Amino acid sequence: MTIFDLLTxxxxxxxxxxGMTLMGDTLKKSAGGKLKIILGKLTDSPLKGFxxxxxxxxxxQSSSATTVMVVGFVNSGTMLLSQAVGVIMxxxxxxxxTSWLTALSGIGSGGAVNSVMQWFxxxxxxxxxxxxxxxxxxxxxxxxxxxxGLILLGFSVLMIGMDTMSDAVSGxxxxxxxxxxxxxxxxxxxxxxxxxxxxAIVQSSSASIGILQSFTATGAITFGNAVPIIMGQNIGTxxxxxxxxxxxxxxxxxxxxxxxxFNVFGSAxxxxxxxxxxxxxxxxxxxxxxxxxxxxxVHTIFNIITVIALLPFSKQLEKLAIKLVRDKxxxxxxxxxxxxxxxxxxxxxxxxREGSLKMAETSMKAFSDACALIGSYDExxxxxxxxxxxxxxxxxxxLGTYLVRISEESIxxxxxxxxxxxxHMIGDFERISDHAxxxxxxxxxMHDKKITFSESAQKELKVLVSAVLEITDITYRAVNxxxxxxxxxxxxxxxxxxxxxxxxxxxxxxxxxNSECTIEHxxxxxxxxxxxxxxxxxxxxxxxxxxxxxxxxALDLHKYLKDYRDKEEHFDTLFNEFSKKYALE
Length: 585
What we know:
- By secondary structure, the protein is mostly helical.
- The protein has helices at residues 3-30, 32-40, 46-60, 63-75, 81-94, 96-102, 112-117, 122-139, 143-169, 176-184, 188-202, 205-215, 223-236, 238-244, 250-280, 292-310, 314-324, 345-373, 379-407, 413-448, 455-480, 484-487, 490-513, 519-551, 557-567, 569-581.
- The radius of gyration is 32 Å and the shape is elongated.
């Protein structure tokens, strides 16, 4: 093998890995929304998990990517460890699909049958696929067509890389040094180590299987050589998930350990069976040369046998992983924002939406508790309001950072719109908890100074508090239930709340003039009224942003609110209904 053959091999390997990465990443990006729906329907059934793991891996062409995604799901609390076991098993079988695609390079020539098969040879159809992919990418008007173009281009580059590698190593067929090295790999330990190291380096069992397939062009690799290498490659693919699990929750680490245990036990079982058969029976074909199709067949049979052997023991694998990775007390409420999920933006955005709802729920609890303190102060509840506010602050910080990281990825326009919407809304959610603390502080001041509002002021304040509690409830339910009609009721109620605040302030001035209350009462009342009104404003911002961003790509909240108040008859109807409901005596 000359230096030029080596350079050609490196070139082919580079093309192969680049094509696989391009195709896999684009498939993952295009299918992201569907993956979210599919994985969201998981049940505790290992068989259903297996089917989903197989399907997802066949789509995105990478068991490592699927497993890393599963680690992220478990870490974020979206998936249970028991569900992850079945998905991992399915991913191992799903990854064999790639080996069948790359085996197309092994279609030979000559003979009537092979003349027909030539049409299925990559050198025949790859140029056509590449041309179609290029036209779709350059002329496509939307993301869907451009992504399809990139997928086809990635597949074309992958197949060209495979052919280039095969051509580069074909001259090694008669090289005695190369044959001597291959003889070493008949030692099962050395063969497994070689496969493990190769897969750990390229971070993909599909890629390392493809590299092994290309070396079959030398005609010097036998079934006896290939089997231990393939076993090692299946263990090596666990490295990516193990690295990914660093710094995650205990269950996420256990998921990576389950993946490792599954492949180690599977390799051990298959190796024992293989060498027992080899030792007891004289199986002639084991010494024969293996081709690309043979590699695909061995790879597939190994993974299917492993699943059949270990699927009944999925619960035991789970228990063993729990014993190996022991529990440790800790707070994982923010593990939902898992960096590993950013590689699949649509999934990460869904986790962000879940996080924003948890943040909203925390802020609403803070506000509800703060309102309960008015006229009935309780130190424990006041402290709880501050704790909720602290959690809400941390949610905003972590969620904001996470959304910015997602927006830096190559994402679809619809996903950009969703991240923008969430970034706008979380600021308002956080401000609601701030106003809750302000109200709690006003209640604390009243308690410390033994200040009590007049009976009429208390009644008026109770009406306003009820209205603001309803607007926060409507806002949360509208976002949580994805209900635009409900969100549209927020703005009329916000206008009623503005009117109520102004009316109460005017009534307070009259009471002040009649010496029914003091200036000091007025300062505290004014603070409470302003904070209540500001909470309603933030609810209006959230609902308006939710509606406007769902309908248009850009946010013009001021124009939306103005048009809604001035042009929608529905607005006046709702305004009148809420005005009657929250009328002051």
